[in-house]
Write a structure and sequence with these properties.
single chain, alpha/beta, Rossmann fold, 2 domains, 4-stranded mixed β-sheet, about 40% helix, binds guanosine-5'-triphosphate, binds magnesium ion
């Protein structure tokens, strides 16, 4: 008999959820960045072992919403918690537990699914920081506590072992060779957005959304990826394009190798920038952009 189930990965923004899902699955299924609120969708990453299949659901960081987008993202996370067979709750060892973490812990206690707590970034924390955090989080009395480094792939075996003991018996939900169920169009758009996240400053990263249209293979075998980069204001357009198109070019050349790996072919990235006024705050714009 095998165990299987859905395991949402939840926590505050920037604690390392997406990095962790990528390390667990052994493939880049989710983009990551040093900016909080990188993830904007629930992203499934599948890990199949001899005895179990874990369907991790990377989620947007739970936060106090300031925009309609933020509110929608929190609702999305609540939905994944409601469907969880077990939850992986991620904390950042380099920062003290705060009200944001406590609110999430309370939600999880109410939801009632089993919870494994991963105290992440121990590679960057002092031993004392890690111990203090394990002690404080221990008061919630969840099912297991594991200090880890998602970046250095440290402690992840134990996370998997603990989760497997909590999952119900059941058949595999996905073919064992499958790592994610995301369409190529979405993955491609995320890769482009990731490069912008690393390069833009202050609030601008939040203003960027990327939508990829129909992907086609030309007769010469080159895959054409048409990407539209949406910003919120006319004044942001110039920044995203850069002087003489410099930033768009840099983003393009950083994204291209990853796109080529994704499609297994040469890629032509056709990048265009458009303004969708205040899209983060407007329901109809969010609908159109696929949130
Ligand atoms: N030192 C260290 N840094 C880490 C570790 N895991 C993640 N990070 C860094 O933390 C930052 C945030 O990582 P993400 O994986 O994007 O975090 P997230 O929780 O998915 O963030 P949101 O999607 O915004 O909620 C990035 O700069 C990562 O490189 C770790 O184990 N050690
Ligand atoms: Mg993320």
């Amino acid at each position: 008999m095998s165990a299987s189930g859905f395991v949402p990965v939840v926590g505050r923004p920037n604690v390392g959820k997406s990095t962790l899902v990528n390390s667990l699955v052994g493939e880049k299924v989710a983009i990551t960045s040093a900016r909080p609120q990188t993830t904007r969708n629930t992203i499934r990453g599948v890990l199949t072992t001899d005895e179990a299949q874990l369907v991790f659901v990377d989620t947007p960081g739970l936060h106090k919403p300031r925009t309609t987008l933020g509110a929608r993202l929190n609702t999305l996370v609540d939905g994944s918690i409601a469907e969880a067979d077990a939850v992986l709750f991620v904390l950042d060892a380099t920062q003290r537990i705060g009200p944001g973490d406590r609110r999430i812990a309370e939600r999880l206690l109410q939801a009632g699914a089993p919870v494994v707590v991963a105290v992440n970034k121990v590679d960057a924390a002092s031993q004392e920081q890690t111990i203090v955090q394990l002690g404080e989080a221990g008061e919630w009395d969840f099912d297991a506590y594991v200090p880890i480094s998602a970046l250095k792939d440290d402690g992840l075996d134990r996370v998997v072992r603990e989760l497997v003991t909590l999952l119900p018996d059941g058949p595999f939900l996905f073919p064992p060779e499958m790592h994610t169920d995301q369409p190529d169009q979405f993955l491609a758009a995320e890769l482009v957005r990731e490069k912008y996240l690393w390069r833009l400053r202050e609030e601008l990263p939040h203003s960027v959304a990327v939508v990829v249209g129909d992907i086609e293979t030309r007769e010469d075998g080159v895959v054409v990826v048409p990407a539209i980069v949406y910003v919120e204001r006319e004044s942001q357009k110039g920044i995203v394009i850069g002087k003489g198109g410099e930033l768009a070019k840099a983003v393009g050349s950083e994204a291209r190798p990853e796109l080529e790996r994704l499609f297994g072919a040469k890629v032509f990235l056709d990048l265009r920038v458009k303004v969708e006024k205040d899209w983060q705050r407007l329901d109809h714009a969010l609908d159109r952009l696929g949130f």
